[in-house]
Amino acid sequence: MLITGMALSSTAFAADGVIHFTGKVVDNVCNVSPTLNVTMDDVSIDTFHAVGDRANPKDFTLVLTDCPDTLNTASIQLDGTANASDLDTFQLDNTGQPGVASGVGLEIKSYSGVVAPGGATDPWPLDKVTGTNSLPFTASYKMTDGKITAGDANVSVQFSVLYN
């Protein structure tokens, strides 16, 4: 009797879909410093007159070293929180908290133009002779709202190197 009851309570399973995983095993990658600190110059509220104005551009360089000759190009993807008023700029850290500036965001440009949060640069060709590559960027504060308040204007941006 027990065997009959177990047979009647069996469950039928059917596949509802398929999950495909794609990836690649790659050769060595370039070395890159995991932390880059860029000190932005202080900017006066009076520098900004209208939404979209930029101030105090600061150049910085991301350096890739010891790149193997099997890699041809690299792009840099920048991730962080987008400013709610201007999705091409990065939101200030701790927005809305006391002592934090408002009405501005941080815009980052590469040689190929603005790199919005979640976006990537066009590919840079990698130097196969020296294995060292300096990738230049410029960061600027950008007015994103009609009213700016003074305060800290720090931004944290994560980066990933994408090899092509």
UniProtKB/TrEMBL annotation:
Bilayer-spanning residue ranges: none
Signal among keywords: yes
Recorded superkingdom: Bacteria
SUPFAM superfamilies in the cross-refs: Bacterial adhesins
Any GO CC annotation of this UniProt entry: pilus
GO biological processes: cell adhesion involved in single-species biofilm formation
Subcellular location: Fimbrium
Major localization class: other
Family matches, as Pfam families: Fimbrial
Keywords for the protein's UniProt record, in alphabetical order: Fimbrium, Signal
Fimbrial-type adhesion domain: residues covered: 19-163
PANTHER family per the UniProt record, alphabetical: FIMBRIAL SUBUNIT ELFA-RELATED, FIMBRIN-LIKE PROTEIN FIMI-RELATED
Sequence similarity: Belongs to the fimbrial protein family.
Protein name: Fimbrial-type adhesion domain-containing protein
Naturally occurring in which organism (per UniProt): Serratia oryzae
